[in-house]
Design goal:
Helices cover about 15% and strands about 30% of the residues. It is of the alpha+beta class. The strands form four sheets. A seven-stranded mixed β-barrel has the order 12-19-16-17-14-13-20. A six-stranded antiparallel β-sheet has the order 7-6-9-4-1-11, with no helix packed on it.
């Protein structure tokens, strides 16, 4: 059983929950930018939560189905059409062999997840089907899907037609969107005034926003505490002797535009990190469009752990509602 790609959309890739265990070798976790949306889509169609689905950025693909399947589209608000008839998002619907799935213009969010019963059954690479295009791993020959591709499907599960995730369980951003940050090892490298300004300013998502990282602009430049650059560091005040980068770490090259590292980010380098976006807010970043206003919010470790527990509780509530 396959799904045939008539049109690939702008940038549509096969993604699951990623390939942990290789970051020390420079191979990132990867996987869905919005993990909650991927999990929810798979639950709706009766798949394992980590099954591979399609992640469509800004514009959806056009797909023809060779066999009957159950489908759900979660994440970004992008009108869904089956043979021209509109379908509900975050809700499972039946697709018959020969029918064609298309999408309208994006209304909100950035990434839609197309889950199909059985999951996208491309060959795994290092334990994951996620596409890591820079390393040519996973997905379809390590790249985004293209016109003419035939995407194999796995064995279908026991999903139900018209299952839905309640609106209050679908995370939405505020305006401005708020990203919670735990200040990090190099927070002391900027002045107290710069620390205050960073959290007071309203930033905006820059056009340079992808799976490796999101850049932000429009805030005031950071001021650095004077120091003599250590041996091995570059001349820019934001340079350090190379260090390791956690997911969500916030770099500010030259103190001007923060960059939040995301799923396909490199594992280390020579820029300081003023903090890290907490894990509970990483999905939200993946749904931000360029020019969206953003506020960074300072939190402590207790708050970060509470947010992680709240996110786990929301996933449990979705699971319970679909049983």
């Amino acid at each position: 059983m396959t799904v045939n790609v008539i049109k690939p959309g702008l940038l549509t890739t096969v993604q699951d929950l990623g390939r942990p265990g290789y970051f020390h070798l420079g191979i990132p976790l990867g996987g869905a930018m919005d993990r909650l949306a991927l999990r929810a889509g798979n639950m709706l169609v009766g798949n394992d939560e980590g099954a591979a689905a399609l992640e469509a950025v800004f514009m959806g693909p056009e797909l023809a189905f060779e066999a009957d399947a159950l489908v759900a589209v979660t994440g970004a608000d992008m009108p869904i059409f089956l043979d021209g008839e509109e379908q509900e998002g975050w809700t499972s619907f039946q697709v018959k062999a020969g029918q064609v799935l298309t999408f309208g213009f994006l209304k909100s969010g950035a990434r839609a997840y197309i889950a199909v019963s059985g999951g996208i059954d491309t060959p795994p690479a290092l334990g994951s089907r996620s596409t890591y295009a820079i390393g040519a791993l996973g997905g379809v020959d390590g790249r985004a899907i293209a016109e003419g591709d035939r995407l194999p499907l796995g064995q279908q599960g026991a999903g139900k037609v018209s299952a839905t995730v309640a609106t209050h369980l679908r995370r939405s951003r505020g305006s401005p969107a708020e990203l919670r940050i735990l200040p990090g090892l190099y927070w002391h490298r900027i002045t107290a005034e710069a620390q205050k300004n960073f959290f007071e300013d309203e930033w905006a998502v820059a056009p340079e926003a992808d799976r490796m990282g999101y850049r932000f602009r429009n805030g005031r430049p950071l001021e650095f505490v004077d120091r003599k650059q250590p041996f091995g560091a570059g001349s820019d005040p934001s340079n350090i002797v190379d260090g390791c980068y956690p997911y969500g770490s916030v770099q500010v090259p030259s103190g001007t535009e923060p960059i939040v590292l995301h799923r396909d980010a490199v594992s280390g380098g020579g820029y300081f990190m003023i903090g890290t976006v907490i894990s509970a807010d990483m999905d939200l970043i993946g749904q931000l469009q360029p020019h969206v206003p953003v506020k960074f919010v300072e939190v402590d470790m207790d708050s970060a752990l509470n947010a992680r527990r709240e996110r786990a509780a929301k996933l449990n509530e979705i699971r319970a509602s679909l049983q």
